[in-house]
């Protein structure tokens, strides 16, 4: 008998006939139910579960390298950043006006997604989403904010 039934019967809120109905069940009916055959196969080896969840799951990160040729490539770059994939942009074969427009678009996208845009070469940029940390050994030489000239300036 459950706690609530006991409390209810003492207070006169429930009928004691429920108790007699529970006692009418025979033990034979309970034995007919075979749990082994009716259970689904949900057995998990604890040692296997512990080993598979023990350490941090290492997922390979893919770095996308794009050599944009037109402003239409900017949306593809933004989609990769939105999908938390770092993108390396190589503007060596891109005309200056197109490169400037793409950098403007991508820098706005990267900022909106709390990412980071770094210049890593003369005309090579790294767009890192917010799940990627970027650090340089000598940040002063690679930072646009310190006055580095862009190739189209």
UniProtKB/TrEMBL annotation:
Domain of life: Bacteria
Region Disordered, annotated ranges: 1-20
One GO cellular component, as annotated: cytoplasm
Any one Pfam family match given in the protein's UniProt record, by short name: SepF
Location within or outside the cell: Cytoplasm
Gene Ontology annotations of biological process type: division septum assembly; FtsZ-dependent cytokinesis
The UniProt record lists the keyword Iron: no
InterPro entries on file: Cell_div_SepF, Cell_div_SepF/SepF-rel, SepF-like_sf
Keywords carried by this UniProt record: Cell cycle, Cell division, Cytoplasm, Septation
Subunit structure, as described in the record: Homodimer. Interacts with FtsZ.
Functional description taken from the UniProt entry: Cell division protein that is part of the divisome complex and is recruited early to the Z-ring. Probably stimulates Z-ring formation, perhaps through the cross-linking of FtsZ protofilaments. Its function overlaps with FtsA.
HAMAP family in UniProt: SepF
Family, per entry: Belongs to the SepF family.
UniProt name for this protein: Cell division protein SepF
